[in-house]
Amino acid sequence: MDSKNLWKRTRDELVAAVTALGYPAELGQEIAKHISSPKGMERMISYLRQVRPNKVEMVVDEMISIRSEIDAWHEKKASQKANAAYTDMLNSGFGEDDE
User: Fold this and answer.
1) What per-residue confidence (pLDDT) applies to 93?
2) Which residue from 64, 61, 65, 59 is spatially nearest to 20, judged by alpha carbons?
3) CA-CA distance, 46 to 95, in Å (whole number)?
4) Closest CA to 51 of 98, 97, 94, 17
5) Is residue 50 part of a domain?
6) Number of domains within the chain
7) Which of 20, 24, 42, 73 has a Cα at 20 to 30 A from 89?
8) Average pLDDT value over all residues in the chain
9) Whether residue 99 has pLDDT greater than 50
10) Phi and psi dihedrals of 24, rounded to 5?
11) 56 and 24 Cβ atoms separated by less than 8 Å
């Protein structure tokens, strides 16, 4: 399954989980846009099915928490990449002749 179809399928599953709790489908669609990754949406679906939150605030708090964790992971990966490039530059030199 290509990533676009996976995203759509996961979004639809998230919307179904949201509406099963009595919330509007638009809330599920906005959550999907905000989280923006199938794995993140799957985590949200799991939360909705296990916890069955009875307040929209709980749903939104979990969405924000998942998005924050995704952002932190991206920042960590970017930092690791920058560190690796810097270490490589230190090990290989700066392109100047060492005399």
Assistant:
1) 79
2) 59
3) 51
4) 17
5) yes
6) 1
7) 73
8) 92
9) no
10) -70, 150
11) no
